[in-house]
């Protein structure tokens, strides 16, 4: 459920999902990729101990492949 809501409220996940949709990925694959993106963001926040920073989350969006 968080992967369905995140593209509406998190700009980093929104850009990521839009880019994957533009490439022609199936909707379920986009949700799965957003799920993975959220898991990596959460892991990074927990591992570093710092609060979520949108600048850091958007920093590598252009370089990422998606799936």
Structure write-up:
This protein is mainly α and 67 residues long. It has one domain (2-58). The protein has 4 helices and no strands. The longest helix has 22 residues, at 27-48. It is globular. The two termini are 20 Å apart.
Quick synopsis:
72% of the residues lie in helices and 0% in strands. By secondary structure, it is mostly helical. It has one domain.
Rg calc = 11 Å
End-to-end separation: 20 Å
Specify the structural class.
mainly alpha
- Low-pLDDT windows of residues: none
What is the number of E strands?
A: 0
Please, how many helices?
A: 4
Percent helix range: over 70%
Order of helices and strands: HHHH
The major pleated sheet works out as: none
Given the C-alpha coordinates, what overall shape results?
globular
**Beta-strand content:** under 5%
Number of domains: 1
Q: Compute the average pLDDT.
A: 86
Organism: Pelomonas lactea
Protein name: IS110 family transposase
Give a quick set of tags describing it.
mainly alpha, IS110 family transposase, globular, 67 residues
What layout of secondary structure does this protein have?
Layout: H1 2-9, H2 11-22, H3 27-48, H4 54-59
